[in-house]
Specification:
heterodimer; A: alpha/beta; Rossmann fold; 9-stranded mixed sheet; two-stranded antiparallel ribbon; 11 strands; B: alpha/beta; 3 helices; binds iron/sulfur cluster
């Protein structure tokens, strides 16, 4: 089973839930697709194999270029623009589709390789851990996420995918081959708002969903929403100072008997094998 | 002199858009010919790179002046040295052009 863990905003405990869930499922792989702010490897410490992720970026031969503007009009990602008397390439926006090279009537466009980030792999107590990290200044990590998802296609074990926050393209890439989406939310008005945002996205992709309430309190705002939409609340992790501390120290809470049962219960409900 | 103004609707009676790159339209006014034309912002719904495309649009029209309450960092970076930005009054396009030509608008820095 491939379980994607999502939240509308960062800092809701998405990584906390993903890491611990992956830990209690026997041999489950953990994919850190939050390539803008990867945190998963703070928990799964170990030697890593690092691989560069390259993309092809156009280069313009300014002597040959006639400034016809065809390339800039063609690029639907707005990565090319005629700025005064030169075509400029905004490489952080380029999706390497190769189209501009084809439309240029005077063959003034060639391509060079550019590194946009890395993919790191490690093994942790039987868990395969794959994560990506985007170079600063890049605008999109979609390519790195696609690459992580591609690598993970061969994994036969269960997979937990720690998705980027929000509901943008990179989230869509992360959940595209997930069987189940786990939505992590905090019981506040903002939490509900963010939850609704990701929930809508999962519905567009017709995914099965369940909710985990983190820092659960007497506010039942998330439970009420879940009930009205007929979504199952799989787990409520109460607010607990010690738990917060363990987590912020980069420790896996499920190693502790006191907290293990939360995640085992969650894994049980997700119908997967436990350690 | 060419003036570019981001607008909510078309024509000289339109109000000014609060946003530059995300404006619905651009009003391009040629002070010599005293002719204004409204262009649809074709990049309005693009998720990324709107600032770049807006700057390209401004430069393509060889504009000297932008009248806009705000301008994105990306656009500004590309336009700096070529275009000056002025803060509009609360009124319509026509009034803003008049005020600008009379020297009554302040530069945005
Ligand atoms: S390769 Fe594609 S995305 Fe990149 S600049 Fe060319 S047309 Fe745009
Ligand atoms: S299509 Fe080719 S010639 Fe035309 S502007 Fe682009 S690079 Fe220059």
């Amino acid at each position: 089973m491939r379980i994607a863990v999502l939240s509308g905003k960062g800092g809701t405990g998405k990584t906390f839930i993903s890491v611990n869930l992956a830990y209690v499922i026997k041999n489950a792989a953990y994919l850190d697709c939050d390539v803008e702010e990867p945190n998963g490897d703070l928990y799964f410490k170990g030697d890593k194999i690092v691989k560069q992720v390259d993309v092809d970026i156009p280069v313009i031969d300014h002597d040959a270029c006639t400034l016809c503007g065809k390339c800039a009009d063609f690029c639907r990602f707005n990565a090319l623009a005629i700025i005064i008397d030169k075509v400029r390439v905004f490489s952080s926006l380029c999706h390497s589709c190769g189209g501009c090279k084809l439309v240029c009537p005077v063959s003034a466009i060639t391509e060079v390789k550019k590194s946009i980030g890395t993919i790191k792999e490690t093994e942790f107590e039987g868990h395969r851990v794959i994560g990506g990290e985007m170079n600063i200044k890049e605008e999109t990590g979609v390519k790195i996420i696609d690459e992580i998802i591609e690598i993970s296609k061969d994994i036969l074990e269960d997979v937990v995918i720690d998705c980027p926050p929000g509901n943008g393209c990179s989230v869509m890439g992360s959940i595209k081959n997930a069987d189940y989406c786990l939505l992590v939310a905090e019981p506040t008005i903002f939490g509900l708002h963010n939850l609704k945002m990701v929930y809508e996205l999962t519905q567009v992709f017709e995914k099965k969903v369940g909710i985990v309430i983190n820092k659960a309190s007497q506010h039942k705002i998330i439970n009420d929403f879940a009930e009205s939409e007929n979504i199952e609340v799989l787990l409520e992790v109460p607010f607990d100072k010690e738990l917060g501390l363990i987590n912020s120290n980069g420790e896996i809470a499920a190693k502790d008997m006191k907290y293990k049962h939360f995640f085992e219960k969650l894994a049980d409900k997700l119908l997967v094998r436990k350690v | 002199m060419i003036i570019v103004i981001p607008t909510k609707t078309s024509g000289e009676k339109s109000f000014i858009s609060e946003n530059f790159g995300r404006a619905n339209y651009f009003y391009v006014y040629d002070t010599q010919k005293q002719i204004g034309e409204t262009y649809i912002n074709e990049h309005l719904d693009n998720p990324h790179g709107v600032g770049i495309k807006t700057a390209e649009f401004v430069l393509k029209h060889k504009a000297d002046i932008i009248i806009s309450p705000r301008i994105g960092e990306k656009s500004m970076e590309l336009l700096r040295g070529n275009v000056k930005v002025f803060i509009p009054n609360d009124s319509i396009v026509k009034e803003n052009i008049k005020d600008f030509l009379d020297g009554n608008l302040k530069e945005l820095i």
